[in-house]
């Protein structure tokens, strides 16, 4: 799974299973945001809205559990 970690100038720093890589922002969809899950296509990169939504839900649940001492 490739995830946008952050933007640095004209590049997006992408977390991959093998580490990180820098990709020019121009190769990503205009609405790409930090935390979005990416998938490679024949034409470059596309965001995976469903995978992004699921990932954000898992992270929010983890934060709730940490803040509530594991009770939720």
Keywords:
OB fold (Dihydrolipoamide Acetyltransferase, E2P); elongated; five-stranded antiparallel sheet; alpha+beta; 72 residues; 1 helix
Q: Quick recap of the structure?
A:
The protein is α+β, with helices and mostly antiparallel strands. The protein is built from one helix and five strands.
What does this structure look like?
By secondary structure, this protein is α+β, with helices and mostly antiparallel strands. The chain has one domain (2-67): OB fold (Dihydrolipoamide Acetyltransferase, E2P), CATH 2.40.50. The chain contains one helix and five strands, in the order βββββα. The protein has one helix at residues 49-67; strands at 2-8, 11-16, 19-24, 37-41, 44-47. The protein has a five-stranded antiparallel sheet. The relative contact order is 0.16. The mean pLDDT is 93.
What structural category do the secondary elements indicate?
alpha+beta
- Annotated CATH architecture: Beta Barrel
Please give the order of strands in the largest beta sheet: 3-2-1-4-5
Number of strands: 5
- What are the low-pLDDT stretches, counting only 5+ consecutive residues below 50? none
Instruction: Identify the overall geometry.
Output: elongated
Domain unit count: 1
Strand content: 35-45%
Count of individual helical segments: 1
**CATH fold-level assignment:** OB fold (Dihydrolipoamide Acetyltransferase, E2P)
Helical content, roughly? 25-40%
Largest sheet: 5 strands, antiparallel
Report the mean per-residue pLDDT as an integer.
93
Rg, Å, rounded? 14 Å
| Helix-strand pattern | EEEEEH
Name of the top-level CATH class: Mainly Beta
Distance between the termini: 27 Å
């Amino acid at each position: 799974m490739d995830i946008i970690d952050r933007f640095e100038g004209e590049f997006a720093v992408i977390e991959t299973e093998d580490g990180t890589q820098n990709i020019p922002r121009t190769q990503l969809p205009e609405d790409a945001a930090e935390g979005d899950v990416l998938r490679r296509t024949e034409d470059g990169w596309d965001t995976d809205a469903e995978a992004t939504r699921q990932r954000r839900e898992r992270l929010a649940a983890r934060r709730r559990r940490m803040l509530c001492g594991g009770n939720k």
